[in-house]
Automatic annotation (TrEMBL):
Keywords: Coiled coil, Hydrolase
Keyword Transit peptide: no
Molecular function as annotated in GO: phosphatase activity
Ion transport listed as a keyword: no
Organism per entry: Geodermatophilus siccatus
Residues in PAC domain copies: 284-338
Protein name: PAS domain S-box-containing protein
Listed PANTHER family: STAGE II SPORULATION PROTEIN E, STAGE II SPORULATION PROTEIN E-RELATED
Source lineage: Bacteria, Bacillati, Actinomycetota, Actinomycetes, Geodermatophilales
Coiled coil regions in record: 331-377
Limits of the PAS domain: 237-283
InterPro entries: Bact_Sigma-Reg, GAF, GAF-like_dom_sf, PAC, PAS, PAS-assoc_C, PAS-like_dom_sf, PPM-type-like_dom_sf
Length: 789
């Protein structure tokens, strides 16, 4: 420990001093030794030992070797003078603020007799205490001093007049208490001395002084010391001194291990409690007065000071509390009794109110549980509807249905779908813990051979729910296969519920729900919920079935109308068609390649408005019209041909509206000349040209009205020269449309993909490059690429 240094304000008795200490980490696992709080005869000392007890607890918390360094944070502001004595050196090594005020400008460490002389300590007869029988010497020898009166003689200003303190007294009376503090077997031998100043009331009689001294000492030492451990959950008490027990009525064993909030009551000021809690969280000292309660329920006003204790590494290891009963200073006895009676009445009222509140809370919780259950069911049904109709893939619908059932409704589920002959043709299953092998066994060995007694078969036959509550009953009657029965046992069959899936007056299958244990069997509410879910699932699956039937017919029709590209000399061609994957996945997109009678090449791309079987049929009619008009046209000009097609469409009512591009490529007259390309458009996206060196050009100047808008208007034809090995690429809007973007962005992306293709890419490779990573499945895509050699 560094020596006590003088305060900045200079010397003189009463000058404040400061101590700098270096601490080391606390030995947390050190066993607590309560022998330090006892006299040699084993009897615990009088209540004045509160300060000593607190210091001993600090020794236990911080380790014997660092007891002196732990004391300043605990005893610095205790309202009594405290000294720490190193018995080996016979010197004072620590003095708290009150002791510094007694000694004045004295540097530590200092010989104990020198310190006593600087304070002016004498016995009651006026003799100096520097003797082996004096209380300080006894404490320095390691002996306890349970209480002895001494006199503090103030220094004289001159030889004739004694010094006077502010109260006009020539000297002061002190009560001395001291105990050995450190462990006998430790490396450090310490003792603690406590000085209590007493007011004698101005009486000169020694007996009166001594009596007043003892009465004052009793009052002054009526201080409870507590230590808590913030490193433990809820910051429990780990030590209390005897004064705490006398004040509160709680014994050591009743208090230690609990948070000291058990002293609070309904009348305790919440603001004071909040201030204490905030200080503890911020690890700072706090002092307040609040109403506490003893073990017998009586209230008392408690002046509480709490200080944090940190080890050498700055880690919080303890909170030390100093508590004093200040009831008499707060109120008189009859006021205390009135407050206690009021507190008792408030407690009874609070108990009644709490009971009523608990009943009301229980009722509210039941009502909330009922509301949550109903809301949960509605939420499940809403989720089921939105989830099941979000896909038109049957396997996906089954998987989504299984996920809805497990684990919300059951521990596992097995779904069976029937074909038109009543045979199980498709299954789906799910278990909350996986168990895929057991579910596979049920799918392969049980589902194709459902016995008549099985809940699934009974539910399908009756179109009604079947509930089987099993409590270890035999499963042989429910499963035809031993492997299936064993698989079911491993899955768990405590309670089984089968509900039919009925849609459009036909049973399409059944859902088998199972709960493994018997502690939560299915009830009627579960049956109603499962039935509702099964009806929605059946309708979704039937919609998938109808969609697939319609799609198969329409897709077959549309593909039958798309031509096989003919082999034409000096021309290399490829086409690509992709149908949409949504409900409207069949439409009127088409392409065609014609070797016309005059030797020219006709290229057609078109799109009938609409996405259904009618659009596909209209596309077939329109393709026939364009072929006829192009094949025997009096004027082969593409604009004239499209105008004639437009008039025929409106006259015959073939289609409502359509977009189209018709291109007529005339071969060169000699080997060195280019091809001549003539184009006309009816509101269709502009075609592209890719030259032999890989450059891509957009023919965006080829425009015109849609087919079916106004057949009387003339149509314009654009003519350009085509260098040899140039590729014409025409497409429908499904290739360039994207949600949230315009067509120009889609066309730019298509141009980039074609430009990035290898220079030597064939028409087939260009078609593949055009559709690579670009389709979102929202519309049909037709694409034709023709290279002119």
């Amino acid at each position: 420990m560094d020596p006590l240094v003088n305060a900045p304000d200079g010397g003189g008795r009463g000058a404040r001093c400061a101590v700098r200490v270096d601490t080391v980490p606390a030995e947390r696992d050190r066993p607590r030794d309560t022998s330090l709080l006892q006299r040699p005869d084993g009897v615990v000392g009088r209540e004045e030992a509160g300060v000593v007890s607190a210091a001993a607890a600090v020794v236990e918390r911080s380790g014997t070797d660092t007891a002196s360094s732990a004391l300043p944070g605990v005893l610095a502001d205790v309202p009594v003078a405290v000294l720490l004595i190193d018995r080996g050196a016979g010197a004072v090594t620590y003095a708290n603020s009150a002791a510094v005020e007694l000694a004045g400008n004295v540097r530590l460490p200092v010989d104990i007799d020198t310190w006593g002389a600087s304070v002016g300590l004498t016995d009651l007869g006026g003799q100096p205490l520097a003797s082996t029988s004096g209380p300080l010497s006894l404490v320095a020898q390691g002996l306890p001093v349970t209480g002895e009166a001494v006199r503090m003689v103030l220094a004289q200003a001159d030889d004739d007049l004694p010094a006077q303190d502010p109260a006009g007294r020539p000297d002061r009376l002190l009560w001395v208490t001291g105990f050995p503090l450190s462990r006998p077997d430790g490396d450090e031998h310490l003792s603690l001395v406590v000085f209590l100043e007493v007011e004698s009331g101005g009486s000169d009689a020694a007996d009166d002084q001594l009596r007043a001294l003892r009465e004052r000492a009793v009052v002054a030492t009526d201080i409870a010391f507590t230590i808590t451990d913030p490193r433990e959950p809820d910051d429990p008490l780990v030590w209390v001194n005897p004064s705490f027990t006398r004040i509160t009525g709680y014994g050591y064993d009743e208090a230690v291990g609990r948070n000291c909030r058990f002293l609070q009551g309904p009348a305790t000021d919440p603001a004071a409690v909040a201030a204490i809690r905030a200080a503890l969280e911020e690890q700072r000292a706090v002092s307040t007065t609040l109403l506490n309660h003893r073990k017998d329920g009586t209230a008392f006003w408690n002046h509480l000071s709490i200080s944090p204790v940190f080890d050498g590494e700055g880690e919080l290891v303890s909170f030390v509390g100093v508590q004093t009963d200040v009831t008499e200073r707060v109120r008189v006895e009859h006021e205390r009794e009135a407050a206690f009676a009021a507190e008792q009445s408030a407690r009874q009222e609070a108990e009644l109110a709490r009971a009523a509140a608990e009943r009301a809370q229980a009722d509210a919780e039941r009502a909330r549980a009922d509301a949550e259950r109903i809301q949960g069911r509605l939420a499940l049904m809403a989720e089921a509807t939105s989830t099941l109709i979000a896909t038109l893939d049957l396997a996906d619908v089954l998987d989504r249905l299984a996920r809805l059932c497990v684990p919300l409704l059951a521990d596992w589920v097995f779904i069976s779908l029937l074909d038109d002959t009543g045979t199980v043709r498709e299954t789906a299953s799910r278990h909350r813990d996986g168990l895929g092998e057991e579910l596979r066994v049920l799918a392969t060995q049980h589902a194709p051979h459902l016995p008549e007694s099985s809940p699934t078969r009974r539910s399908i036959a009756s179109s009604r729910p079947v509930l089987v509550q099993r409590t270890g009953a035999d499963l042989d009657g429910l499963f035809t296969s031993e492997a299936a029965r064993q698989a079911a046992e491993r899955l768990g069959t405590g309670s089984l519920l089968a509900v039919p899936m009925v849609a459009r007056r036909r049973t399409r299958g059944a859902i088998l729900l199972a709960r493994a244990g018997t502690e939560r069997p299915f009830d009627q509410e579960d049956v109603d919920l499962a039935e509702d879910l099964a009806r929605r699932a059946a309708l979704a699956m039937d919609n998938v079935r109808l969609y697939q039937q319609e799609h198969t017919v329409a897709d077959t029709l549309q593909r039958s109308l798309l031509p096989e590209l003919p082999a034409i000399p000096a021309v290399e061609s490829a086409a690509h068609y992709v149908s949409a994957s949504t409900a409207a996945d069949v439409g009127g997109d088409f392409y065609d390649l014609l070797h016309l009678p005059d030797g020219s090449i006709g290229v057609v791309i078109g799109d009938v408005v609409g996405h259904d079987i009618a659009a596909a049929a209209a596309m077939g009619h329109l393709r026939g019209l364009i072929r006829a008009c192009a094949w025997e046209a009096p004027d082969p000009d593409p604009g004239v041909v499209l105008a004639r097609v437009d008039r025929l469409v409106q006259g015959l009512g073939v289609a409502s509206m359509a977009t189209m591009v018709y291109a007529r490529a005339v071969p060169p007259a000699d080997d060195g000349a280019p091809w001549r390309l003539h184009l006309a458009s009816a509101g269709h996206p502009p075609p592209l040209l890719r030259t032999a060196d890989g450059d891509v050009r957009l023919l965006d100047d080829v425009t015109g009205l849609l087919i079916g808008v106004d057949g009387s208007l003339p149509r314009r034809t654009t003519s350009i020269d085509l260098p040899r090995d140039t590729t014409l690429l025409a497409y429908t809007d499904g290739l360039i449309e994207r949600p949230g973007t315009d067509l120009d962005e889609g066309i730019a992306e298509l141009v980039d993909r074609l430009a990035a293709a290898p220079v030597e890419a064939s028409p087939r490779a260009l078609c593949d490059a055009a559709v690579a990573g670009s389709l979102d499945g929202r519309d049909d895509v037709a694409l034709i690429a023709v290279r002119f050699r």
